[in-house]
Structures are given as C-alpha cells and as structure tokens.
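Q: I'm writing up a methods section and want to include an example of the input and output format. Could you take the sequence below and give the corresponding predicted structure tokens, formatted cleanly so I can copy it straight into the document?
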Amino acid sequence: MSTLPACQTLLLEPHNGVLHITLNRPESRNAMSLQMVAELRAVLGAVRDDRAIRALVIGGAGGHFCAGGDIKDMANARAQGPSAYRDLNRAFGALLQEVQHAPQVVITVLQGAVLGGGFGLACVSDVALADHQAQFGLPETSLGLLPAQIAPFVVQRIGLTQTRRLALTAARFDGTQARRMGLVHFVEHDAQALAERLDEILAHVLCCAPEANATTKKLLLASAGQPSNALLDEAADWFSEAVTGTEGVDGTMAFVQKRKPGWAP
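A: Here is the clean output for your methods example:
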C-alpha cells in the first residue's frame, strides 16, 4: 500500500482496501483552508496508482462535513493582491478535478454543514450519503462572491435549472431535498444508519475489480463531458475580480463581523 503523506488538517485511516479521509478542522466546521486543499491533493496523488486502495471515503469531524472556503485565507490573500485570490480559487478547482478523476470510488458522508466548497466536494463524489438534517447551500453570492470553481461541477451533478435557483438565492436545504434533486443517493436519519449504509456500499464496491472500476469511471466521465481547464481558469479570474470588488470586500467583512452586508435588507 502507498505511503501516505503526513497531514495536519486530515485524519487518514486505511482499512481493508478503503482509505477513510476525515476533514479535521472542527473549530471552523472543517472550512477548506489552502493547507487542507494541498493535503487532500497530496493524498490523492499518493494513492492514484495504488489499486490496493479501492475506495476513498470522505467525511468531516465534529458533526459537519465542510462549511466552504476559509474566509481567513481570503483575508490573508488580500494583502498579496488579486493574483493571490485567483491562485487560491483555482487550487480548489484543481482539487475538484482530481477528486472527480480519482481512479478509486469516492464516497462522501455528509453531515451538518455542506456549504460552498463542501457542496462542490459532494458533487464530485461517485456515491453520496447524507444525514436528513445536513444543511446544503451555495452561500457565495450572499457574501458578494461567486461559486467560481464549484459551479460547473454542480451543473453537471444536478442540472442547470436547479443550480441557477440555488446559486442565485443562496438558499439552504436539507438532505431529503438533496436526494430529491439528485445531489445525494441515500439519506439516513442517524449516524448508525449512515455507518450501516456505508458498509453496505463498500461491500458492493469491493465486489468490483479495481482496474475495471477505474477504467469504467474514466469512460463514464468522458461520456458526460467535463468542466474544462479553460473555463475554470476564467472562473478564477472572475472570482478574483469579485472578491476584490466593493461587494466582495463588504460581504466577507460582514461575515467576519457577523453583520448584514450593505445590499441585504
């Protein structure tokens, strides 16, 4: 089995051909910091060619999956100028592409906050399980920002019509609604039921040949069309313009200061 990188923001547990990856920043509801993005990408790179690892299970510590991007990273980028925002944003798009194309079966276990970047991660999983009370949403526009790297993957997952409604209203919805729109495959009512469902799915995955699964996944993704590098590059530019503009500055400061931004009633 592959040598796994040392991680500060992730807990890694390999077990019987499955690598369990826990996003582990519970004090921030597992907000996706640049360090967490880098560590996830390093883990994916380390196991990419390892067919002894048949599935990747991604969950979150402390009762939440992921509350989105880390606003503190955006504050740090402010001092470095627009290119830092672009690079920060584009790194997350690269992570989504790498999860999407992981040869292993990727399973997400979604509890608590599944927002922004966490929502994006759910959209690139092969199988998604959710607690019925999990809270999903794309809050970016309520912060004066764009779901720049996430949007193409969300459209691919649930379609343009639903994505337009969710992205342009920043509406929150629960696990039951997420299943209705095709974002998740299974919804359970407690942690025990989620664990049992995960065991059932992993048993099915382990019945499938790892190389056949990897090649089948490549075929399926090629059949559906992919968010392109060019689109994600352009989206990162738009994100940088938004976050350094009047709305982005007010929206992110309002979030930190726990107040409404200027445009909100």
